[in-house]
Design the sequence.
């Protein structure tokens, strides 16, 4: 039997993790923590460790979310076992074989994984989501130590609800080094505003201090999945593409016809964004008659 | 406050990754190297905390002889001393990495108040070394932190979650992992680089235990195989762009 920790809401990534576990064969127990349990990674992991022993689990899995990765790392540390994060496949055996994501998905790693139970987190979209029944609800084990409980969510700051959130935007207009300055983002903001979209940027831009980190799309920034991603003056480094590969369509605007971003683009405009982007904004106004 | 920051040397990858012939590493012949991004922010955060509260920053890396370059970079922005666990150039799995760090920490006469890490390394993305280190040292560990403050031995940490931030409060000593965006790391100054040359780097050569998560080979995933439709050159492309936006339904 295999145990899968699922996020309380039973979201799509949790459904994918359950489907992944079913693919290993045997029974699958989807478990979550009761809504009233404040998140406490080590205490939750202790609970999962005890459950795995009690049920004789052959694998303990979680979706490769922040919390899934954190919980499984605690489980692994407690058991003294290896854990493979962000797996796209897992084949039990001795040793088990895994394929996992590296570099935010820019590279795949084929690896051998020891250990019993097998511990892994499931990379998003490795398998299709399958609905599952009501998960078992867990309460934190009384055996959780004071040290386990020392890290526990004790408060919450709600996000200020201003503007379109980058992660959820239908349109993202994003600027890279080619924008040239903080002021240069005026044309990007204008187009994003006309399209009801969000402004994004590359890591080069946040490192230069032109935009806040909350605007960064990339491996170390936000992952976006808009209907269209408009990349302006972005060369297409792997660090950036790791954040925008979820876009349905990509329009790249770049003066360098050889820029690597064009290899991932659906539409290309060869040109200077400082000329092209204002022309697009003007055209939208013209079409709308405003 | 005495702080340890752990960093990793990683290649500065560009637009396309190519692998070595045996498929076990990225071809880095034409690439520069840097400190993994989250860890660069961990070092900056340590230096700011020491500027505010006093104490010292020690920076540690497990990596090949060349990783001294990254240690000197961190010394140049204000770390006080460095520990270099010189590896054999092979990849160490996360358990082996954590064990080497724990051994190095235990060998020092004074314990640290705070151990700072990046949330995950850019290349391996294993999400576990700091948690394993905390577990072995009997310390609490909080991860993915975007705001950190310390007062009277109490840490206040903010973690980004969907719709806001979760807050954690815990006592030192502790292990904390941070994410890029917690600060904007400073660049080394020329005098900083000069001072860095004279700061101590303690090197040792730990033995690599057998890996239990064994990388066998790397694979560059197939690209989307797209052939971009060229909508035009320069501002003359605008009408065609707007047609496409209308077709997609975003206008």
Sequence:
């Amino acid at each position: 039997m295999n145990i899968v920790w699922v996020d309380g809401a039973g979201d799509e990534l949790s459904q994918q993790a359950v489907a992944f576990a079913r693919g290993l064969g045997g029974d699958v127990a989807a478990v979550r923590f009761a809504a009233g349990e404040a998140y406490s990674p080590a205490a939750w992991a202790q609970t999962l460790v005890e459950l795995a022993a009690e049920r004789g689990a052959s694998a303990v899995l979680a979706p490769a979310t922040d919390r899934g990765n954190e919980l499984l790392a605690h489980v692994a540390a407690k058991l003294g076992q290896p854990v493979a994060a962000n797996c796209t496949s897992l084949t039990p055996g001795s040793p088990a074989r895994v394929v996992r994501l590296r570099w935010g998905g820019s590279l795949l790693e084929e690896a051998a994984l020891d250990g019993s139970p097998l511990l892994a987190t499931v990379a998003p979209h490795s398998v299709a989501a399958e609905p599952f029944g009501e998960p078992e609800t867990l309460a934190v084990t009384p055996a959780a130590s004071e040290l386990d409980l020392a890290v526990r969510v004790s408060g919450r700051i709600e996000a200020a609800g201003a503007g379109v959130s980058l992660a959820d935007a239908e349109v993202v207009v994003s600027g890279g080094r080619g924008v040239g300055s903080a002021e240069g983002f005026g044309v990007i903001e204008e187009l994003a505003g006309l399209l009801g979209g969000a402004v994004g940027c590359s890591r080069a831009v946040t490192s230069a201090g032109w935009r806040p980190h909350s605007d960064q799309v990339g491996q170390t920034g936000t992952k976006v999945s808009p209907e269209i991603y408009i990349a302006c003056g972005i060369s297409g480094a792997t660090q950036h593409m790791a954040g925008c590969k979820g876009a349905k369509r990509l329009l790249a605007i770049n003066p360098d016809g050889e820029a690597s971003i064009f290899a991932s683009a659906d539409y290309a405009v060869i040109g200077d964004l400082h000329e092209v982007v204002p022309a697009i904004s003007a055209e939208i106004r013209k079409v709308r008659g405003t | 406050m005495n702080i340890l920051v752990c960093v990793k040397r990683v290649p500065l990858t560009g637009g396309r990754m190519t692998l070595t012939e045996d498929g076990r590493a990225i071809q880095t012949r034409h690439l520069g190297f840097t400190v993994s991004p989250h860890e660069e922010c961990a070092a900056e955060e340590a230096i700011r905390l020491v500027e505010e509260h006093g104490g010292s920053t020690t920076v540690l890396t497990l990596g090949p002889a060349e990783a001294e370059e990254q240690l000197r970079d961190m010394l140049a922005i204000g770390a006080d001393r460095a520990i270099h666990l010189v590896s054999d150039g092979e990849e160490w799995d996360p358990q082996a990495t954590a064990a080497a760090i724990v051994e190095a920490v235990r060998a020092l006469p004074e314990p640290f108040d705070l151990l700072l890490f990046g949330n995950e390394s850019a290349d391996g993305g294993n999400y576990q070394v700091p948690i394993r280190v905390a577990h072995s040292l009997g310390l609490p560990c909080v991860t993915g932190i975007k705001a950190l403050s310390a007062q009277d031995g109490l840490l206040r940490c903010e973690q980004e979650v969907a719709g806001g931030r979760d807050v954690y409060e815990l006592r030192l000593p502790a292990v904390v992992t941070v994410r890029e965006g917690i600060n904007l790391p400073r660049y080394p100054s020329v005098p900083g680089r000069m001072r860095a040359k004279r700061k101590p780097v303690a090197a040792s050569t730990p033995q690599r235990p057998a890996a239990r998560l064994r990388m066998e080979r790397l694979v560059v995933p197939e690209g989307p195989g797209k052939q971009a439709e060229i909508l035009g050159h320069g501002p003359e492309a605008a009408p065609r762009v707007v047609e496409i936006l209308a077709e997609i339904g975003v206008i």
Observations:
- The helical segments of chain A are 12-22, 41-55, 66-79, 146-149, 186-194, 203-207, 238-244, 273-288.
- Residues 273-288 of chain A form the longest helix (16 residues).
- Residues 2-149 of chain A form a domain with the Rossmann fold fold (CATH 3.40.50.620).
- DSSP finds eight helices and 14 strands in chain A.
